[in-house]
Amino acid sequence: MKVVAAGQGGVFSRAQAFECGYTRELLRERLGDGRWEKVRYGQYAERVDLGHLAPWDRELWRHRRLAYAVANSMRPGTVALSHQSALVLHGLPLWGVDLNEVQISRLDGRRGGLIAGVRHHRGKLASTELTSIGGLTVTTMSRALAETACTASFEAVVVCADAALRDHRFTVEGILGRIEFWPGSATARAALAFADPLSESVGESRLRVLLDNHGLPAPRLQVDFADADGFIARVDFYFPDHGTVVEFDGLVKYAGGSREILVKEKLREDRLRTLGLEVVRITWADLARPADVAVRIRRAFARSRRTG
Q: Which Gene3D superfamilies does this chain map to (predicted)?
């Protein structure tokens, strides 16, 4: 069973279990004692401990497995995973995108709609818009990003577009022409134009959107600073006209309580401030209070003017 599941994202069907010699009683036994779990109707997998993963990574992991389960229940050649489901398979980080439904595009001309947690899309796909990942037929990253960009929020599109530009040498020009007359294309075009490969994380992408939403100037990204003693740091955001640096801490870096790390970070910030810079540190939790973040940064601008 492990060999079969390994080639299908860890998922196997009831019929495949029976073919491998498992009986209905053995299936019930393994489901009952927690060794196996039901992924969706007729599709199963070994239970995996995800406690070591961050919540957003667990969500992506579960959606990927669910996508395999859906594909494993379909006749080969009839569907392609698409939209955000394809982006998950392509390995793009996602935020603010609905992962409760698996998205597929019909290749056999059958009807669309929502059926048992699967969103079926109709539409013609050229062979150049399809690829294979882990044995699954999926829309290409370009097509999947175009599909998602027209159905997700501005912020969500910026997050995945930044990652595509940064990690996959992706360009948006081909998408812009493709989506010109698609519903939702206005938001998609604006988000894709805003995308920047210098954003290094989901949090940095979200923070850029927050700054723009609150009318703050566009910062320079990933700027190096040095002093007489040499290199200090590459900062996430720099506002040269306001003498302010903004750093984003996506995770609790110091959860282990390492005094060495805390001291190193304090010295780094002290050296930046010695250059006459204001330093503002933003955490993931702060993004839930966007107005407060904007106020903190504007106050830093004001302090810089008074001391400049």
A: VSR Endonuclease
